[in-house]
Amino acid sequence: MMKRLILGALVMSSGVSAMPGMGNGMPQNAPGANPHGAMPLETAELTGVLTSQQLIFEMIPMGREYLAYQVDQSAMAPLKTVSEPVEILAVLGTWEPTSQKQVPRMMKILKLAENDKITAQYVGVDKKGSAGDSTLLEGIQVLAFPTFIVRQGGKEVGRIEGAPKGGLEQALVDILK
Fold first, then answer.
1. Computed over its alpha carbons, how large is the radius of gyration of the chain?
2. How far apart are CA 61 and CA 141, in angstroms?
3. Residues 87-135: pLDDT tens digits?
4. Strands (E), 38-171
5. pLDDT digit string (tens) for 23-62?
6. Per the count of CB atoms within 10 A, which of 9, 85, 99, 107 is most buried?
7. Torsion sign across C-alpha atoms 79, 143, 92, 157
8. What angle do CA 114, 170, 146 make, to 5 degrees?
9. What backbone phi and psi angles, to 5 degrees, belong to 62?
10. How far apart, in Å, do the first and last CA atoms of the chain sit?
């Protein structure tokens, strides 16, 4: 039997792949296909404290949005000069379309701001509003996804709920003025 290596997968001359999931007739790039398991990553309900790496690399729509989003550079200047510590708590639904767009945009904005005075924590909730750990969102009311709660000195100074009309960069700048 003849064997050949095609794009890292050992394929036998019969057309049967020697690697699971490769060449087995299953479409690998079909909408909702998940290379990591059975649940489509577009609808996964990740809860609790999440890292930006988890969200970008495990949630297909968030990764795509992060790569595609073009930051409004003209609105970025004030974010680069913030001198007082700012904490942003992002409450999101990984399964929810507005969160899938706005959260990766915020991540990219903060990365390009290159300001270590601005930090963010991401908390995922399920469709019932639970973050898994009951203390994570204690005393916090969320009416829309995502909700970005902006704090300075431990006190809330503003919120961005859902998709702001003037852009996420400008909404954050307006809060921090």
1. 20
2. 26
3. 999 999 999 999 999 999 999 999 999 999 999 999 999 999 889 887 8
4. 48-50, 86-92, 118-124, 147-152, 155-161
5. 334 444 444 444 444 445 677 899 999 999 999 998 999 9
6. 99
7. positive
8. 85
9. -70, -40
10. 71
